[in-house]
């Protein structure tokens, strides 16, 4: 299923120590068999003769027997929360929904490859049950669900259904990617992010250079809002383009500010999906 | 100018039912629509709003112009009454055979011109100089002929006058000609100066019974009467008393003159023995007939389709310019296509596999 040409994996590093007894790929809370050395405990505490630490036992003035403990590797659950409001239909340099699907496919592949679960939730005005995938390590199911995103119909004008998604995520912390273009009111962003605050949230901001840096310098453009806010004729010229780009930059800066209390800084996914860039972002924030 | 709207109309009114279509630009626009995730991303810009309004108005103008032009608008013809200097002139022109002779009483040869040709030339100039006169032309020989009724159409009058040197007919029957020339004046209009110009080279006896009728007519119409007598050399003058018996039969010119004098209307007789004398007489008449006259100007029905098409063309021109100024919002830049193609190709694979 995951052919080599599928591209690089997304590497991630959960901010918390996942619990649980299942074996996974991340440093967990539990101590267990193989892995990184964690500490030594008394033999009576962990009567495992195979892991007696002779050097530590000899060093002990009370002649106790020390046993080495190792960190257990535990899996995490990753969730992609996809905003399916109508603005996701935008096609600039790239198909925005296609980008979201590419991201989901890469995440599904990367997560299932190392034994993590991949789940998918999509929402427009309401929670989209047809696209819901509870976290699973089943690689084919994860890939199928990710592929369905690319063909999903998006017609809603809000992303309120994501609140329901946040409710379904209750429980253990999860690694959550909130994929949207964040063309939401600031109050909505804050509400959804605060509902997800228990999880390790990475906002993935879908952008398109056609919408800011790639604007033509001159010309008439009739803009038609995908979410039904009407039409507007715009006469593009260098001064207006400058203002437009300043506005976009200010919007992203505002989004960054809104994310700070609840989540990692947003990752800007523009034009083409680059798993390595996302990896760098995840490992450095 | 007449009423601002009353005089306008269209040839095919039912087409105007299509006029509400002109409001379509309020709903749709000619420019290519670019779907964008949020219109609010674009900063507010008064210039863009103004251009948008101009384009909408241009669209409305183009559609409305085309529909109105198809309906065929026109401004209805109307009669405009103005006051100028001039008179109603009824010309009574002798078409008897003798008019074809020269003033010397011969058939014209070489450079010579006949009496008819001379009077045609001079009367033609007379008509051309007077801007607001109305003319009627009546010819007579044995019977009177209505050539042109009282009109201010210069061309028609000039054409009528240029036809009077066609070869003349039989005799001279002044009485019936006078009757018809008087009837040309139509109903009396206040303050209109009227002139009856009789051009002849001879006279005839007027029957006493008809004389009474003519008197009554003259009393009713009260024109200024001018008699331009083209006298052939050697023929009796209107003032000459005949040697013998002084009867109308012996000296019809003299008796006609006497009859005219007895009518009680302003009367002058001009005796012309050559083209120059005729011209001089006409100049005198022209100087005498200088009174204010109300005249009617006919403004013809005027086709306004051109204006409607021009308005539509202007609107369309603006729209075409806007179309040419349209920017390709999404697909500009040399690398756009390759950048677009690459990620799609890469990420299409797992989806198609899964399907």
Query: What spatial order of strands do you see in the largest sheet of chain B?
Result: 7-6-5-8-9-10
Category by helix and strand content of chain B = alpha/beta
- How many domain regions of chain A? 2
Indicate the multimeric state: heterodimer
Number of structural domains of chain B: 2
Beta-strand percentage of chain A? 25-35%
Rg calc of chain A: 23 Å
Question: What's the N-to-C terminus distance of chain A?
Answer: 31 Å
What does this structure look like?
Chain A: This is DUF58 domain-containing protein. Chain A: InterPro entries: DUF58, vWFA_dom_sf. Chain A: Residues 48-250 form the DUF58 domain. The complex is a heterodimer of chains A (285) and B (355). Chain A has seven helices and ten strands. In chain A, β6 (175-180), α5 and β7 form a beta-alpha-beta unit. Chain A folds into two domains: 26-74, no CATH class; 77-208 and 264-284, Rossmann fold, CATH 3.40.50.410. Chain A is elongated. In chain A, the strands form three sheets. A six-stranded mixed beta sheet of chain A has the order 5-4-3-6-7-10, with helices on both faces. In chain A, strands 1-2 form a two-stranded antiparallel ribbon. Chain A is of the alpha/beta class. Chain A has helices at residues 54-59, 96-113, 139-150, 161-168, 186-195, 238-259, 275-284, and strands at 26-42, 66-74, 77-83, 117-123, 133-136, 175-180, 200-207, 219-225, 231-236, 267-270. Helices cover 30% and strands 26% of the residues of chain A. In chain A, α2 (96-113) packs antiparallel against α3. Chain B has 355 residues and is of the alpha/beta class. Chain B has two domains: 1-30 and 46-77 and 300-326, no CATH class; 80-299, von Willebrand factor, type A domain (Rossmann fold, 3-Layer(aba) Sandwich), CATH 3.40.50. Chain B has nine helices and twelve strands. In chain B, the strands form three sheets. Chain B has a six-stranded mixed beta sheet with strand order 7-6-5-8-9-10, with helices on both faces. In chain B, strands 1-3-12 form a three-stranded antiparallel beta sheet. In chain B, strands 4-11 form a two-stranded antiparallel sheet. In chain B, α1 (46-71) runs antiparallel to α8 and α4 (174-183) packs parallel to α5 (208-221). The chains are: A alpha/beta (285), B alpha/beta (355). At the A-B interface, α2, α3, β8, β9 and α6 of A face β2, α1 and α9 of B.
